[in-house]
Amino acid sequence: MPDAMALATAGAGSRPSVRYVLLKAVDDRGFVFYTNRLSRKGGQLQRNPFAALAFYWDTTGKQVRCEGRVERLPAAACDEYWASRPRASQLASMASSQSSPIASRAVLLARLKRLEREFRGRDVPRPPHWIGYRLVPDRVEFWVRCEPRLHHREEFVRRGGRWTKRLLQP
């Protein structure tokens, strides 16, 4: 899954937390992903709007790391992306209170069945807690595997709207 990225956030006491999310867009402003703002990561981003992400593609021997601030996307962008998702994904997102404990998987599946009945024959509206974020990088590193473990690393750092490049040792 080339669009899978490890997203690191920080919780209480700056304790790090990492999980995989899917990259949904990239542009000159940053990297876009969508999630439940009431989830653990959503709460962490609300309290500390900085994060890091990493991509690793073993077959190509390449990695990209980014760090920066995270901003919420406007509701219109969230609505547009929500409408493009498969119906089953919309219903699953609506059924899950992401990161919250649940008594059993059967409870979750029952919620899903109820929502399938409730929205039969009509569009599934985007829940207000399902939103998009953009990580706006101020640091990006490109890593390329080289033998004998003398990997090639280039780091770009943004300061005042300008990017500077430097090589890093493996």
Structural features, described:
The protein is α+β, with helices and mostly antiparallel strands and 170 residues long. The protein has a single domain (4-85, 128-168), classed as Electron Transport, Fmn-binding Protein, Chain A (Pnp Oxidase, Chain A, Roll), CATH 2.30.110. Helix content is 24%, strand content 43%. Strands 1, 2, 3, 4, 5, 6, 7, 8 and 9 form a nine-stranded antiparallel sheet that branches. The two termini are 26 Å apart. The mean pLDDT is 96.
Described by the principal axes of the CA atoms, the overall outline is elongated
Beta-strand portion reads 35-45%
Global Rg: 19 Å
How much helix is in the residues? 10-25%
First-residue to last-residue Cα separation: 26 Å
CATH architecture annotation: Roll
Order of helices and strands: EEEEHEEHHHEEE
How many individual β-strands? 9
Q: Identify the CATH class.
A: Mainly Beta
What's the average pLDDT? 96
Q: Please count the helical segments.
A: 4
Q: Which sheet architecture does the biggest sheet show?
A: 9 strands, antiparallel
> What is the CATH topology classification name?
Pnp Oxidase, Chain A
Helix/strand layout:
Elements: E1 4-10, E2 16-22, E3 25-27, E4 30-36, H1 40-47, E5 50-57, E6 62-72, H2 75-84, H3 87-95, H4 105-118, E7 130-144, E8 152-159, E9 162-168
Antiparallel strand pairs: 1-2, 1-5, 3-4, 4-7, 5-6, 6-7, 7-8, 8-9
Helix pairs in contact: 3-4
Keywords:
9 strands; 24% helix; 170 residues; 9-stranded antiparallel β-sheet; alpha+beta; elongated; Pnp Oxidase, Chain A
